[in-house]
Amino acid sequence: MSARRKVTVATRKSALALAQSRAWMAELRERAQVDTEELLVVTTGDKIQDIPLNQVGGKGLFLKEIEEALLAGQADLAVHSLKDVPAQLASGLIIGCVPKREDARDAIKTRTGCFFKDLPSGAKVGTSSLRRTLQLRAVRPDLEFVPLRGNIDTRLRRCEEGVVDAVVLAYAGLRRIGRASEVTELLSPEVCLPAVGQGALGIEIRTDDEGILSLVAELEDMETATLTASERGVLVAVDGSCQVPVAAHAEHVGDQLRLRALLADPDGSNLRREELLCPWPETLQRAQEAGMAVGRALRDVR
After folding, report:
1. Shared-domain flag, residues 18 and 72
2. Which of 35, 50, 76, 84 is catalytic?
3. pTM (2 d.p.)
């Protein structure tokens, strides 16, 4: 019997990164009949915990060292939260697979268990996301939105300790680490449009590694890949570096694609929205083009 191929998977060390990469690796082992090992990487984004990401280079800081490991051949692939992946990858790398998506919505935990609309005037809401702040402030301009970084456990603890009265997080992350039961309320896209690719994973590989591409292709979910391709098309068109407030959320409605997106200037001003309803794209390229059309419309509004 021939030995099973061993695949080295690069991932960050956070509880969420490990939970989602290990769950995906288990599926890879079963579906592709390979063995896996982890390469744990500490990224610049992990090291900088006291400054909002939009002030230090954006979410791409969570990829830099991982992409260097991929290009150096130290790993065969990497598992990312797709919402952390900027529009442009390092040369020589591609997203080779987008598995089935988790729930894309944002979630809120309040210290007292009240709903967002019932928070008292002046209550402190912790989030370092300008995207979330802009949308939630539009609904509750009487609240105070304060920067709050750190891993999920840290941010939940800050709420429990009373440092903030509420905290806003991606629901998918809470589900993946087994803390979804602590959510007070899920925020509909009408209230808070999710980040591009939120709830989905992106499996990054070297462009020229056809063997790994054929392995991971088995785990691609075409509906998720199509939806996120349209969302990332928005990101491409607005030259999204994760330093500008941008959001996009696509849905499969009957035989159509519904894409909603918003964009603001880097300082949070000039918030504008666009929506597209079109026939379901036949290819990922068509999906991305649909998203780029929405992104250009947002970009050109002044």
Report:
1. yes
2. 84
3. 0.91
